[in-house]
Structure to design on (646 residues):
């Protein structure tokens, strides 16, 4: 009898153990209990399955907020979305940031996701004097009306009008037609 | 209220899928699990195709109304064609203690998968490729606007990817009245449930019925099925693709074993849907079409074969034509000059071999699935040749060979990085079918006892 069922029972017990660990690691209500009593087990599980650490409280913008959490502002998705909603169809926002920063791509891609139906333009800046990388230029006939500086200071001429949105981002309106590559020049 | 609206959206989707399942599935008694799984898969395919086609003419409430009407019509057609199918549904039995324990484990894993789907964030591609399309479709009244596809400055990723998943998510958004990144993921436990039901059905039909519930429980021991990039909880299209692949494989096996027209018909429909889920679906469809063609030509049924290949070929051709018409840019992960690239990349074969080999042994992604699959293959070679099991093995091995081969054309600077970032997700496409083969090749002690027990049952 025992031999007959030993394999399925082992599978079942193993599965239940993994499930319990996953529950303790993944459910925010059970997390205090896990911290207090099963910390080593949780650490071990998270080491093997790091995705379990990526838990959310839910919500319409839960995932995009997570990709923008390094901006350290409240409701980052909502605030980035609001930056483009009042633009006319032939206007866009230029996203400017340091091309070598590991969070740069993640941030501008998420901003592009939030900006639909506007197609934002993206400019990657190198070290001062090393020029810029035109990653996603504005579409034909589209004018830059706003510039978002991520981990980057605006050129001196634009600095007075720039508003600080959070520790990592500055926003400025662009009133004149400006050569878009020049947003890095400093 | 949200859950009520989601339930209505799901019921309409299931009604359409149920209608198609009744029209397509083989003429025999149907299992409840099999019927649910196929109804859900066909429902997703139908709703997304209806949204895409009707989206050229309607938007918003009108589009939702027209799609709902189409779903109800197809449900009525299915019921009319096969009313007795409902009365003859086979319900699962839990007479053995092992089945009861396995049911408990399966229920627990469904709970964990549902929690994981709700609580774990959408992955990177899931948000920026799949959910993004769903959100745009919702904001545009249920279908993607034509000016999305050309993507003039290239800021939106992969606008030419197929639309089953995004338009199904948009269907739920439409009923919900708003996009919601967390609620969209509640679709994925249903894909997981469909995978479990199909695994159970496959084991019961081609192996020992008593192994069906343990096989379902064993899917949880493949971590990438429910956790990590590509899994059910990540919101990627890879796990849904794996479920469609498993469905197509089951009916391909039935066609090989029993030669029924219904099996070929269902395989054809499920395989065609692969093309509509993800671009790699074309490779999976081609492999399945090849295996079906061998059998059809053995039986001298070229007409049936052509009819079976038609839905997939038509879907592929029309989708490519549409992408050309709307000037959608194609994906650029692979180079476009095949022969020259092949000769230039031949020295990469070793590097690809090493990279691919190490992916098979990543225990935190696949557990012991691939060593188990290798063991199952060895067991196949030891005994007498069973065509259906050989076909099941080939339906796993052929895509793996093709997937490994395409890295010869990789456009990435480092092919190892390309493999590390994508190959495990590609392997997931055939993982449920590999698990099916493992369970069907259970070692002799289990099978011998079962045979004795079944003999006793037959005597009684």
């Amino acid at each position: 009898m025992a031999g007959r069922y030993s394999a399925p029972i082992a599978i079942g017990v193993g599965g239940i153990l993994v499930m319990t660990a996953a529950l303790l690691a993944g459910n925010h209500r059970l997390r205090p209990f896990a911290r207090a009593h099963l910390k080593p087990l949780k650490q071990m599980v998270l080491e093997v399955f790091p995705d379990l650490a990526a838990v959310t409280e839910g919500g319409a913008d839960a995932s995009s907020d997570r990709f923008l959490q390094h901006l350290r502002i409240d409701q980052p998705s909502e605030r980035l979305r609001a930056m483009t909603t009042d633009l006319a169809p032939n206007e866009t926002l230029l996203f400017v940031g340091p091309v070598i920063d590991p969070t740069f791509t993640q941030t501008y891609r998420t901003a592009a996701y939030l900006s639909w139906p506007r197609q934002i333009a993206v400019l990657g800046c190198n070290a001062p004097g090393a020029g810029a990388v035109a990653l996603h230029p504005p579409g034909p006939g589209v004018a830059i009306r706003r510039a978002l500086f991520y981990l980057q200071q605006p050129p001196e001429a634009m600095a007075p009008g720039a508003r600080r949105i959070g520790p990592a981002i500055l926003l400025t309106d662009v009133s004149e037609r400006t050569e878009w590559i020049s947003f890095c020049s400093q | 209220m949200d859950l009520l609206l989601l339930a209505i959206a799901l019921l309409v989707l299931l009604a359409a899928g149920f209608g198609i399942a009744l029209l397509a599935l083989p003429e025999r008694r149907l299992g409840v699990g099999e019927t649910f799984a196929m109804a859900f898969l066909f429902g997703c395919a139908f709703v997304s195709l209806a949204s895409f086609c009707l989206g050229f003419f309607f938007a918003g409430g009108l589009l939702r109304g027209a799609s709902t009407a189409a779903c109800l019509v197809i449900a009525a057609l299915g019921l009319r064609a096969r009313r007795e199918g409902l009365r003859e549904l086979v319900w699962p039995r839990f007479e053995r203690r092992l089945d009861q324990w396995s049911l408990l484990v399966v229920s627990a894993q469904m709970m964990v998968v549902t929690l994981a789907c709700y609580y774990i964030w959408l992955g990177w591609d899931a948000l920026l490729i799949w959910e993004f399309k769903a959100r745009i479709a919702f904001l545009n009244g249920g279908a993607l606007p034509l000016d999305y596809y050309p993507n003039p400055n290239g800021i939106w990723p992969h606008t030419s990817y197929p639309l089953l998943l995004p338009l199904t998510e948009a269907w739920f958004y439409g009923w919900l009245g708003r996009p919601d990144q967390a609620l969209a993921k509640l679709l994925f436990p249903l894909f997981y449930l469909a995978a479990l039901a199909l695994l159970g059905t496959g084991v019961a039909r081609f192996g020992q019925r008593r192994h069906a519930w343990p096989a379902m429980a064993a899917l949880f021991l493949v971590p990438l099925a429910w956790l990590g990039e590509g899994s059910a909880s990540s919101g990627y299209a890879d796990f849904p693709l794996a479920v469609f692949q498993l469905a197509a494989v089951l009916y391909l096996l039935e066609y090989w074993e029993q030669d029924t027209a219904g099996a070929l018909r269902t395989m054809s429909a499920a395989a065609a849907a692969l093309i509509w889920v993800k671009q790699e679906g074309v490779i999976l469809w081609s492999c399945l079409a090849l295996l079906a063609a061998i059998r059809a030509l053995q039986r001298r049924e070229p007409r049936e074969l052509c009819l079976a290949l038609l839905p997939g070929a038509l879907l592929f051709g029309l989708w490519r034509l549409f992408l050309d018409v709307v000037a959608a840019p194609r994906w650029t992960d692979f180079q476009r000059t095949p022969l020259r690239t092949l000769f230039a990349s031949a020295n990469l074969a070793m590097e690809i071999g090493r990279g691919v080999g190490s992916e098979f042994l990543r225990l935190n992604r696949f557990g012991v699935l691939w060593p188990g699959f290798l063991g199952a293959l060895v067991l196949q070679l030891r005994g007498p040749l069973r065509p259906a099991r050989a076909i099941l093995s080939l339906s796993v091995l052929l895509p793996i060979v093709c997937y490994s081969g395409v890295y010869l054309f990789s456009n990435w600077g480092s092919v190892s990085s390309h493999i590390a970032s994508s190959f495990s997700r590609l392997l997931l496409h055939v993982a449920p079918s590999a698990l099916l083969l493992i369970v069907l090749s259970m070692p002799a002690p289990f099978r011998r006892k079962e045979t004795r027990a079944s003999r006793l049952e037959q005597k009684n």
